């Protein structure tokens, strides 16, 4: 099996095994193969493995064939995606009807390029590899992947995705950066290939934060489209997670909302100042959460047993949670205005531009340190 060694299969054992199993299952239905070679013949085995090799190579080629990405919308998320795609050596076609969108994107890319250079550029990476176009109409033949970053308005997305589905090549994945609208709500407008539509929701800013929530809808093709999307995002250096069922807000935003709502409640009730609440998070929970998620932390706090943690500390946590529900922050205009007045002095005393730059610098150092560990990457 020299051909397998040359092709680099040893580096992709899990994928190879999965494909080998699938091919064996498929071929078990074909009596001709066994009749020709016999159930246990070496020829039959090599024929099956060769089929695996061909299928696997076709899959890998599909990944590598994503050379041109279309970006729709160049707000904060779309601009950041564009920067990342360029840094990974891809060609990017960008469109956005907003006034000054092209100029704003150019300014953003120039500002972020030094950071991306520090992280490390892929072969062929260049700021010259993007084109801002008024319309994608004349470019669909060259587009290999679409990342939509338009407004969070359902009717807008339904109209846009129907158009993209009609124009894009059948094999092109159409991913939305939507932060909360399930793709089933606009994929239903796609008359041709709704199975290639899914959510690829990044965390801001995408060119720095690794997470991408991949959220298929009920009829998204989970055999080919979902694995291809996951592999594509991984090839960019991202950390994609697969969300098995659609849920409003997905996962990261729901976790963030739970903490934020309690933070709003505590400050609005005069229990703690906004500045001290931020310090509470950044000097305790935030430090640990950058390294471990809640399940690992609970297991460690439980002496190595997650169940032990729940049995001994769960009742107290339940009583706190019940109290939180009694004092949930109400998103009324009056409550928002009152809370804003409380928070504004802290905001005014902070140089947000400097804070953002320092945050990004520390993030880079943190991610670099995590990448050098066996369990924290």
TrEMBL record:
Pfam family, one: 3HCDH
Keywords recorded for this protein, A-Z: Oxidoreductase
This protein's record includes keyword Cell division: no
Span of domain 3-hydroxyacyl-CoA dehydrogenase C-terminal: 249-314
InterPro entries per the UniProt record, alphabetical: 3-OHacyl-CoA_DH_CS (IPR006180), 3-OHacyl-CoA_DH_NAD-bd (IPR006176), 3HC_DH_C (IPR006108), 6-PGluconate_DH-like_C_sf (IPR008927), 6PGD_dom2 (IPR013328), NAD(P)-bd_dom_sf (IPR036291)
Gene3D superfamilies: N-(1-d-carboxylethyl)-l-norvaline Dehydrogenase, domain 2 (1.10.1040.10), NAD(P)-binding Rossmann-like Domain (3.40.50.720)
MF GO annotations: L-gulonate 3-dehydrogenase activity; NAD+ binding
The 3-hydroxyacyl-CoA dehydrogenase NAD binding domain, residue ranges: 68-245
GO biological process: fatty acid metabolic process
Domain of life: Eukaryota
Family: Belongs to the 3-hydroxyacyl-CoA dehydrogenase family.
Name under which the protein is recorded: 3-hydroxyacyl-CoA dehyrogenase
UniProt source species: Aspergillus flavus (strain ATCC 200026 / FGSC A1120 / IAM 13836 / NRRL 3357 / JCM 12722 / SRRC 167)
């Amino acid at each position: 099996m020299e051909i397998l060694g040359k092709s680099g299969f040893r580096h992709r054992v899990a994928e190879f095994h999965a494909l080998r199993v699938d091919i064996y299952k498929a071929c078990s239905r074909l009596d001709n193969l066994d009749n020709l070679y016999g159930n246990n013949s070496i020829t039959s085995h090599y024929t099956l493995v060769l089929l695996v090799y061909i299928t696997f190579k076709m899959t890998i080629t599909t990944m590598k064939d994503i050379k041109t990405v279309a970006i729709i919308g160049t707000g904060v998320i779309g601009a950041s995606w564009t920067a990342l795609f360029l840094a990974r050596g891809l060609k990017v076609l960008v469109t956005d009807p907003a006034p000054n969108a092209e100029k704003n994107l150019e300014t953003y890319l120039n500002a972020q390029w030094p950071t991306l250079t520090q992280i490390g550029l892929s072969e062929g990476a260049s700021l010259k590899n993007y084109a801002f176009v008024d319309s994608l109409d004349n470019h669909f033949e060259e587009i290999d992947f679409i990342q939509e970053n338009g407004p969070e308005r359902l009717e807008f997305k339904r109209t846009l995705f129907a158009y993209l589905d009609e124009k894009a090549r059948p094999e092109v994945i159409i991913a939305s950066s939507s932060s909360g609208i399930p793709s089933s709500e606009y994929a239903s407008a796609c008359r041709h290939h709704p199975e290639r539509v899914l959510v690829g929701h990044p965390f801001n800013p995408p060119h720095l934060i690794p997470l991408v929530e991949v959220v298929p809808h009920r009829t998204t093709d989970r055999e080919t489209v979902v694995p291809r999307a996951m592999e594509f995002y991984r090839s960019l250096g991202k950390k994609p997670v697969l969300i098995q069922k659609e849920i409003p807000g997905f996962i990261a935003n729901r976790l963030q909302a739970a903490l934020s709502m309690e933070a709003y409640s505590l400050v609005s009730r005069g229990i703690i100042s906004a500045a001290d609440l931020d310090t509470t998070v950044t000097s305790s929970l935030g430090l640990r959460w950058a390294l471990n998620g809640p399940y690992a932390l609970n297991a460690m706090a439980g002496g190595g047993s997650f169940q032990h943690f729940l049995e001994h500390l769960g009742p107290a946590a339940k009583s706190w949670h019940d109290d939180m529900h009694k004092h949930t922050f109400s998103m009324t205009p009056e409550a928002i205005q009152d809370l804003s007045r409380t928070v504004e002095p802290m905001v005014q005393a902070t140089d947000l531009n400097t804070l953002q730059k320092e945050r990004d610098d520390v993030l880079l150092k943190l991610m670099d340190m995590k990448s050098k560990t066996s369990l924290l990457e």
